[in-house]
Amino acid sequence: MSLEVTDMILEDLKRELIGRRVSRREDLESLVKNSLKRSLREILKKNYNETDLIRLIRDSNKPFIIIFFGVNGVGKTTTIAKFAWMLKRNGFSVIIAAADTFRAAAQEQLALHASKLDVPLVKGKYGGDPASVAYDAIQSAKSRRVDVVLIDTAGRMHTDKNLTEELKRVVKVAKPNMKILVLDSLAGQDALEQATYFEKIVGYDMVILTKVDADSKGGIVLSLAYKLNKPVGYVGIGQDYESLVKFDPEWFAERLLS
């Protein structure tokens, strides 16, 4: 967690606990833990978005365009595949745009998932224009009456100005209905820096947090809610396609204290 969030929680606990009378029958440990849980819940619900994405897509004009951002190694490609599986399970047709024309094997990795999921994939040449790949996928979706377009983008950080400008251009061409940032729950403060960076250059509507099944508790969620007012929509809790689940503040608060 960020220092600001930690300080806020400490202040909450001080207000809640210092000077409070405790009867002999009360369990002091449970009292402190419940106070902490209340504080965590308040932060997690601060910007929690209860919007049903499936209903939103169903009620929107088609194709519904979703673009994914994230640095290399966060699990973005696998997350897109999980997302495609979730959409297909809910009755939507999907097409994937492999607009990461920068990283070696990025398109092959997506192609493997697309083949398993029986989802069409639009690719481009390595080193080619990723905005063109996104555009072609959207036009293909329109002509084939596909419901949802999922656009992958190259992982990048602020040190690479060319990739940053490229990302802005992809967003400008695609005009997405939703922009999703994928973050690694194990990244800690680095994840918060990534979130701040992507918000600055292109903005985003939702975060997907990956690798929550690993040792990390995922305190980054608290920092996102408190500092950036950004909701976590889904969390990845495994490697298979079914392991992308909707974020639940109550469950997460319990997890943080388990």
Description of the molecule:
There is one protein chain. With 258 residues, the chain is α/β, with parallel strands linked by helices. It has one domain: P-loop containing nucleotide triphosphate hydrolases (Rossmann fold). Helices cover 48% and strands 15% of the residues. It has 10 helices and 8 strands. β7 (232-236) and β8 form a beta hairpin. α6 (130-144) packs parallel to α7. It is elongated, with a radius of gyration of 20 Å. The two termini are 16 Å apart. The relative contact order is 0.17. Residues 231-244 form the SRP54-type proteins GTP-binding domain. It comes from Metallosphaera yellowstonensis MK1. InterPro entries: AAA+_ATPase (IPR003593), P-loop_NTPase (IPR027417), SR_rcpt_FtsY (IPR004390), SRP54_GTPase_dom (IPR000897), SRP54_N_sf (IPR042101).
Please report which band the strand proportion falls in: under 5%, 5-15%, 15-25%, 25-35%, 35-45% or over 45%. 5-15%
First CA to last CA: what distance?
Answer: 16 Å
Q: What kind of assembly state do the chains in view correspond to?
A: single chain
- Determine Rg (CA atoms, Å): 20 Å
The CATH homologous superfamily is called: P-loop containing nucleotide triphosphate hydrolases
- Assign the CATH class: Alpha Beta
Secondary structure tally: strands: 8
The pLDDT mean sits at 87
Per the CATH scheme, the topology name is Rossmann fold
State the secondary-structure class: alpha/beta
Uncertain runs are none
What's the SSE pattern?
HHHEHEHEHEHEHEHEEH
Number of helices: 10
User: Helix fraction?
Assistant: 40-55%
What global shape is seen? elongated
InterPro entries: AAA+_ATPase, P-loop_NTPase, SR_rcpt_FtsY, SRP54_GTPase_dom, SRP54_N_sf
Family: Belongs to the GTP-binding SRP family.
Membrane topology: Peripheral membrane protein
Protein name: Signal recognition particle-docking protein FtsY
